[in-house]
Amino acid sequence: MSNEKMKMGPPGPRPGGPRAMMSHGKPKNTRKTIYRLCGYLGKFWPLILISVICICITTVGTVFATSLIGIAIDDYISVFDFTGLFKVCVTLLIFYLFSSLATWVQSYLMLKVGQETVAVLRREIFEKFQRLPLKYFDKTTHGELMSRVTNDVDNVSQCLNSSVSQILQSILTVIGTFCMMIYLSIPLTVATVVTIPLMLVMTKWVTKHSRKYFKDKQNRLGALNGHIEEIVSGQKVVKVFCREEEEIKKFEKLNNELLDKSVRAEIFSGSIGPIMTAINNMTYAIVVATGGILMIVGSGMTLGIISNFIIYSKQFAKPLTELANQVNMIMSAMAGAERVFEVLDEEEEEPDAPDAYEMGEIEGDVVLTDVNFSYEKGHPILKNVNLYARPGQTIAFVGPTGAGKTTIINLLTRFYDIDSGSITIDGHDIYKTKRNSLRSALSIVLQDTYLFTDSIKENIRYGRLDATDEEIKEAAKLANAHEFIRRLPDGYDTLLTDGGGNLSQGQRQMISIARAILANPSVLILDEATSSVDTRTEVKIQEAMNNLMKGRTNFVIAHRLSTIKDADLIAVVNHGEIIERGNHEQLMAKKGFYYNLYTNQFDQNEAV
User: Fold this and answer.
1) Each residue of 360-408: pLDDT tens digit?
2) Would you say 416 and 376 are in contact if contact means Cβ atoms under 8 Å apart?
3) Residues β-bridged to residue 425
4) Phi–psi pair at 572, nearest 5 degrees
5) Spatial contact of 362 and 551, defined as CB atoms under 8 Å apart
6) Backbone phi, psi, residue 423, to 5°
7) I want to staple 57 with a disulfide (CB 3.0 to 4.6 A). Which of 19, 102, 540, 543 is the partner?
8) Residue ranges in 234-271 assigned as alpha helix (H)
9) CB-based contacts of 363: which residues, under 8 Å, 6+ apart?
10) Which strand (E) or helix (H) includes residue 29?
């Protein structure tokens, strides 16, 4: 099926511009988001288990090595026993080497887990795009979607690469250190943990305020990306109307909004570091004072134990401080993950009915019966539309902009579903057949063509992936594209730039027609494709379109009425209703709406 159909949407201005994307539905639910991320991580539990074991080795080594320092002070340094001190130093070296190796292994494994998880997320969101209904893309800017696949997923990636292992290591370090402190001295343990409630309160306060700013930051970033994508795509329009300064001002507004939210988010998250440092220094002072008092009163406290506790207090508080310092990354990742999950949770195209069947080969007998449709409830677009196309007929839709012509096509292809009525092809209700079998029987050529960044040959082959090179050339010949392709330096292997920008409008249209010819559909939908090309090219394209239309049921959305004079049936659409129907001669004889449209267009052309 021709890929241009993906450009079709409801008539009128496209909704959901960049500034319309500021709101993203429900408030942030951090717990639910973390739970869903853990579901992804659970798929890699063997690697995570090995990482946990490595973290345990690192933690045990660090805690035990610290206790050796106290022993060295009390048993060897104080009595100048250099032999014993040397043994302790060697033991410390061995512990630190094993700890470093275990740290490297767990870092490598968690990095792998993080990247694998992000790859799964990217694949799922891309696959989700393929299952979303066209109306979602009509209401969402491309820049906004790209922001979720790139920026938001990258934020999740950064968090998984470092924060997950950091959380695991911090938890085990806190537990191991606490157990050792209890073993050495309960009074000094109390002195060490007395400031922990203050740390938790400050962390909770900062997290609460920074969370909403990181959410706003991600939303503003999506809006800015949407605006950039829109302006880059429409650069010709911007320049021809000299709107560079106006667009720069709009960009500055969006950029300043992003700057404001970013600064607020970073200020709140960045403040946790200095706060924790001050609390840690307070803890050191409390430990030293308490230990000194216990030594003076003769409770068995030693200088080595006090030294151990100074180190342990740092080891105990450091994980909390590091977690607090990562609040910005964690909050940014949660905001990004939630936005990714919002896309993954979007309602997909209505699934095929359980008893849906393959349509198979069809002749192209199309019937619309009492079709009613509205994009929004209460605002009908089509009203009781009835239409019958026999196999091989050409049906043309004419009428003013917004009358509902494109909407009829959107319903035929099931890009949108009707409110009531029925649509059948060869007697098959299209809502009882499999959607892919329906679309495989159709092909669409639009006025605004879309070509992929690939060779000309592969762009044509997109119509039927198993086509041979010879079949591709035959399709190009029927589309009058073979001659200009043959003259290109690399011929059919010529690489097209984004959207086929290195070809003319007429050349792009011919390749699009060749693609549709190769697909060999039973029903063809054409949007007048010659309005933006020169007269000579128009003749070639019209000839190619005539080749394409032979032996098929054709639906043509006509802009130049002179091009559909030979149509078997012309349906005049206005305000969502077919108000006139017949061939050209019949409608001209009625001297009604079509007559006025045709004569006005003819008079305008004569004036030109």
Assistant:
1) 888 889 999 999 999 888 788 899 999 999 988 999 999 888 888 888 8
2) no
3) 366, 428
4) -90, 115
5) no
6) -130, 125
7) 102
8) 235-240, 244-270
9) 391, 426, 522, 553
10) none
